[in-house]
Write a structure and sequence with these properties.
Length: 40
Amino acid sequence: MTEKQNIFKLIILMIVYNIFKTCDRFLDFLFMRNTQEYQE
């Protein structure tokens, strides 16, 4: 039971971490696009 719970927590942590990483990359992409538009 505890082993399954630990694995489940690990999977959730990985998913959350990946979501945050993707959001970070997406925000960076948007920010870069905005700065490029301002420079033009």
